[in-house]
């Protein structure tokens, strides 16, 4: 499968999932209170740490291993099944202490139900890794879409019938069960069902450092909800969670889709002794222009977006959205940096960069948390800037990056983002003067900013301009010579 076709399928997959997620979030935000969502957010932040351990890097081992044998697949299967069972037990044991710590017995039932996810997940995850290895993004898209649909229907349906925050737990379980069922249909016939231990040490050695980095990142990402929920109240945790979810749409819109393709692309370039530095700079130029423009538009449209998506009861999340959108400017390149280090086998550098950057972020959160959720969001901006410098320093130890070309493309990206944001601001001002509805205001701003984005890319000759030009109708219909 070509890189462009893989990207198209990956984007279609993510956008279908995003539509489902947004629609479900809009419904749930109106059916549940901020406190109820805060209860579930704290539980999920707790389980996110366990989720990073659910296959201990075994899936990535299967993805990158050059000589894949039945014995190696059996060892991957053994790790995934064993870790899944262990995490289910740990989740059950931790449910009552967590409910006691936060003084909310609803957490006990939610965690007990979610423990089943860890038992079921391995039946889909081993096939998921295989499909990623083969770049079968069509099959992956079906699995994610159908599982997302099942989770959305269950969550919204139970919330509608007044079951409270545990509705989201049932939705999560429905997602896991459906995903495992669909992906099992694509499981290769030669994949064994019996686990094995012959290559267990190799699998664990490969995944341990990657898993360590994931654990550190998960602790850091969940720290705001933990701190705010304990130092203040669960409502503040809910506000921060919703604001972060809105800004994190960039991950669903762009980052996840691109990273799913760039990791195997970087690995292939490294194996073939290609110019990995130039490839890295090109991907970073594409990611930065889209990510920075997204940040600017979300900053400008924070208030109408929150009102439109979640309702008036979430107005307190608006300033958080704005600060987190600015922090995203520095977070956009991190996934690309991480993929490059993995493709080079630099797991030590990956773990070191993750630990250092997350330590900076954790310190910022700890200092800011007593002052409330707005200060925590504001503190993420300088913390993210320092983190980016640490990641780029790690990349520099592995490849020769054309820094001059990267600086030039960054200047172009900044120009595009500034003009795109200005267009969104102008549209927002015009719709405010004419007192249009929020839906009209958001659509008008998105339409105008999109046109400004495309025009500025072409006028500044940004590296992405060549890819945009490929989509022109006259390029597709030009007769062959």
Automatic annotation (TrEMBL):
The chain crosses the membrane at residues 12-31, 37-56, 77-102, 108-131, 143-162, 283-302, 322-342, 349-369, 375-394, 439-460. Keywords: Cell membrane, Membrane, Transmembrane, Transmembrane helix. The keyword Membrane applies. The lineage of its organism: Bacteria, Pseudomonadati, Pseudomonadota, Betaproteobacteria, Burkholderiales. Belongs to the polysaccharide synthase family. It is found in: Cell membrane. GO terms for cellular component: plasma membrane. This is Lipopolysaccharide biosynthesis protein. The keyword Zinc does not apply.
